[in-house]
Each structure stands twice: as structure tokens, then as C-alpha cells.
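Posting this for the archive.
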Amino acid sequence: MVSVYITGVGMTKIDKHWDTTVSELASEALRIALNEAGMESVDAVFVGNMLSGIVNSQENLASLVVSYAGLYGTPAFKVEAACASGAAAIASAFISLKSGMFKDVAVVGVEKMSDETSVEGITRALATAADSEYELYHGVSFTALNALIMQRYSYEFNVKPEDYGLWSIQMHKNATMNPYAQLRFEITMEKYLSSQWISKPIRFMDCSPVGDGAAALILSSKKPKDSPIEIAGVGMATDKFQSFLREDLLTLAAAKIAAKRAYNMANIRPEDIDMVEVHDAFTIMGVLSLEALGLAERGEGIELLKNGDIKPDGTIPTNLAGGLKARGHPVGATGVYQVAELSLQLRGTPVGVKLDNPNIGVALNLGGLASNCYVTVLKGE
């Protein structure tokens, strides 16, 4: 059976890159990853992106990125799965290597969100990941959908506002150690509680920022001699697309299925995991993600925050580079940033807080309202 290893990592700082195009960002990260892997070319390039057509007026993005990177003749594929486009690109590349068709491939996740300068415009662009006829048409944004879930979770499990604040405070603290993070400053509980309502009960400090960034990985079926990092498991699943058709809004059903599939492939259990990267586009999604990964029972994810378990010295260190909340969330790139950060942590050269000898890391990337979910398991040696 073919194994898949990460041999190169490249990232750009997440920011408002006003003077850089989406293709320039992507090719920069790709070139960094190629240089780190000691390679000039690959057999194929997979580009994860959500918004290039809507925001950047640029489709055929994968071919453009390959051209900017000088990799003429290389097969190129754009992969779109809403905010999970990055992880979907990794999964596609993983499958291509497992099949034996390619030996070395590159994955690039990229998003240039600042080209849409209005809040309304970027909100509408992101909302295209929901049902355009039954949700978007009626003016329902992702913030509103997440607010409904957060309100119900708070009601059912008696969660106080300051409980959620623990998440944002920790993410910002972690991000101060990450030179690639967008929001490299700490916040206090007072700052969290005084931040404005976006869609009650979601506050401004519950939301990930809008930003630009690109991250890249070189994946190979050849095991490297030094610090091999293996993609040991990949799990994928979809949920009922419309939120109003779901039996339980407080369970990320597709994420649970994807996690089970990834764990089975990697032959691990939740208790084997040393660290996680979860999709905290909003605080409530971070909490529900921990539950979906089997790290807490339904309604008990909030206890991991209150007990300090998500801290670097806790039982399940979470989003050590700052997560979507503070590292940033350039949507199509997020899944690649997650895996890149875990890879560097396993290698012993993290961009954020450093753990002592972790061996297994898990990333969960959500698309839409967790309508399509990807779980990636990494193992170090």
C-alpha cells in the first residue's frame, strides 16, 4: 500500500495583501514549499480555493498558479468545497498518490478576500456556500446560521457568555507566537464581553477575520530520510445541506462520520491524539468540532474550555498557531494552513507554541455549515 508523506511546507503571512494578486500569493507559497522539499517540479498541482471567480474575477485558477510558478506542462486542478476547499485539495492529492498515478504532487490553498472591499459583498460571497434558494435568498448569512446554533447550545447546556470568551482569549494568546498570524495580540475577557454584537449571541470577538493568504504542501509517496510526517488517514463526509432539514443542529454529523473514517484508516482512537486544529470560524464551531472529533460528549465541549484542556499544556492542545479566530481564515487556504501547522509541530519546528514530542495531530476543516467535512490525521516518527 502506498504511503503519503509531507516533504515540504510553505506559507505566507495572513494579512490584507492589497498589492498582491491571488495567483502571486499562491505561487509564492508553492515556491517556498518546493524549495524546502529540494524540488524543482512536481507531477501535479492541486489548488484549493473558494472565491476566486466571485471576488477576484479569476477562474481557471490552478492553471494560472502553475504558470506563475513556472511549472509549465504540469497538470493542475482547482478544488472547491467552500471553506473546506483546502482540505478537499489535500484529499484529492492524497487519492492521486494512493492510486499510483503520481509520485510527487503539490497542494496550494489560497484566498484573496480583500479584493472585495465591502462587508456586504464578502458576506454575500461567503453565503454562496449555503442554499441560494432557501437560505441566501431570504437574507440568511453564515453568521446568522451560527448564531442560531450558538443560541440553542447556550440554552440547552446553560453556557454563559464568558465561557465562550475563553476560546477567543486562548486563540489570540497562541497567535502571538505565530509570525504568519493575522491577529497577533492578546485580548482580555473584558474586551471579549464588550465587543459588539454581530448576530446575537455572536460577538465580534467570536468571529474569524477576513484576510488573504496562501499555504502549500509537497506530498510524496517516497518516504523522506529525515523527520517523515505521514498523512495516515483522511476522512470525508457530507451532511444534509440545508440546516432546517437536520435532526440535530448541535451535532456536526458529517464531521463525526469523517473523523471515524480518518481514525479507522490511521488506526487511532481519539485518546491517541496529541493536538488538533479545528475550524473555529465562529467560537461555537470550535466547540462543536471538539465534540465531533470524539474529544467530548455532546454538550460537554464547553467544559474543555472551562477546564483549560485546550491550552498548550492541557489534555488536548487546540489550534496552537491561533486557529481561524486569530491566525486568520482565508477560506480556501485554511485547511492547508491547518495541516502545514500540524506538520511543522510534528517536525519540531512549529510556527506557534511548541509541544514536547507530539506524535499524532488531527485537522478538521468544515465547508459551509459543516455540510462537507474533512478530517486529516498526521503521524510523526
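The longest strand covers residues 229-238. The mean pLDDT is 96.
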